[in-house]
Amino acid sequence: MRRSFFALLFVLFALSAWAGPRSLPRAHGRAVLPVEAVSAITLPPLDVVHLLAEDAANEGRPVPTRIGVERPINAALRDGTLEALRDGGTLWRLAVRSPGAPWMSVVLEGLTPVPGLEIRFHDPARAFVMGPVLGEAIDLSGLLASPIVPGDVLVVEAYVPAGALPEFSVASAVTGYKSFGPGRGAGECNVDINCPEGAEWQDDKRAVAHILFSGWICTGTLLNNARGDCRDYFLTANHCIHDDATAQRTVFYWNFEWTGCGNGDLLFGDWQSGSTLRAMHPKSDFTLLELNQSPDPAFNLYHAGWNAAPDPAMGAVGIHHPSGDVKKISIERDRIATSGNYWRVPNWDLGVTEGGSSGSGLWNLSHQLVGQLYGGASACGNPKTQMWDEYGRFDISWSGGSTSASRLKDWLDPDGTGVLAIGGKDAAACGTSAHQRPVERP
């Protein structure tokens, strides 16, 4: 994200503060080897001093915020520990270590949708468990990027109820070098989405996700389309994601927020992995993704409305994840201005944006998205003259380039109705059958 201010201090929460496990590992309570005896891969330490120097050099440039580094592993089934269980199932485990890392994640490749397959990611103490990802949820790419697991050891666990495991590999690991901790990353002037100021934006907030890709973080928004058929199109910044390989390994964190205003329960368990790049246009800094799987209906998501008219909005709202923190709201009460291919928020009246906010949506006061965050100067404590931000204009992105791969209208109005503004739609009105996404163009 292009900006002159960069506050990126993450504090690792105690495991008990994170979302509780969806389920226990299959190894729990069974006569199998302890985690300490499972095959392990140990990565060399990162040169954190060098990485921080690179980050400092990137300040003010149009790049997303980095909190970790992806490194190849290419570990196959033979590199892990395979055990037969008494129920007739087969359990495979591999521990990936990066001594001193505050968190880790991994990327699996070559997966197939085997019935009964269960994949989990957890810490050695089994206090933090993400999953299971079921075999039928493996998308056509065969790739699965895991969510973050706190600590310097991540255990990958795969189980099938009978027969041999499918062939796959742990292709890479993402090692954190900046501690990731919700609730204490962003500047103090940011306002939680569930504070009174966000009361009118409780539907729109459910379209917003914090995204992690290869150690980088941004924000983006799930969109409605003119058909109202709930295709899972997701808008973010081109300077965040601009190739399909990155899109395929992006992890989406939904509903990442406090239940109260700066307090309450922390929500962090709603996640999914994988998307396909549909369109992008660097001139207005947009990228449109399509999720590889429909989100779980239990996530209770929302498809945001949008407006592709060329008129500057009278007032605007941003919903975002500054510094990878929980969801925040920023409010501008004055008319936004035109700045070439961008909308300029002249002076936030409430809140700011930070690294990690890149790609987040800007709504007009009719609850229609009109752009996505490119960058700016706003920061807690800045004078009013330095409280501006710029967002890629939705109307410019609408027409974009000369092909469907460089503009929005082919995807969001595939029937060519000419509509330029629509409202949002609750995902609960879209049906509940999850499905894989085809890779065709409209």
Distinct helical segment count: 4
What gap, in angstroms, lies between the N and C termini? 31 Å
Strands, count: 33
Computed over alpha carbons, the radius of gyration is: 21 Å
User: How many domains would you count in the coordinates?
Assistant: 2
% residues in beta strands: 35-45%
The coarse silhouette is globular
- Output the structural class: mainly beta
Q: In the CATH classification, which architecture of the largest domain applies?
A: Beta Barrel
Q: Summarize the amount of helix as a percent range.
A: under 10%
Q: What is CATH's topology name of the largest domain?
A: Thrombin, subunit H
- Uncertain runs with pLDDT below 50, 5 residues or more? 1-21, 432-442
Q: What would CATH call the class of the largest domain?
A: Mainly Beta
Main sheet makeup = 10 strands, mixed
Assigned CATH superfamily of the largest domain: Trypsin-like serine proteases
Average pLDDT confidence is: 89
Overview of this protein structure:
6% of the residues lie in helices and 36% in strands. The chain contains 4 helices and 33 strands. It is globular, with a radius of gyration of 21 Å. The model is unreliable at 1-21 and 432-442 (pLDDT under 50). Strands 13, 24, 25, 26, 27, 28, 29, 30, 31 and 32 form a 10-stranded mixed β-sheet that branches. Strands 2, 14, 15, 16, 17, 20, 21 and 22 form an 8-stranded antiparallel β-sheet that branches. It folds into 2 domains: 26-176, Jelly Rolls, CATH 2.60.120; 182-442, Beta Barrel (Thrombin, subunit H), CATH 2.40.10.10.
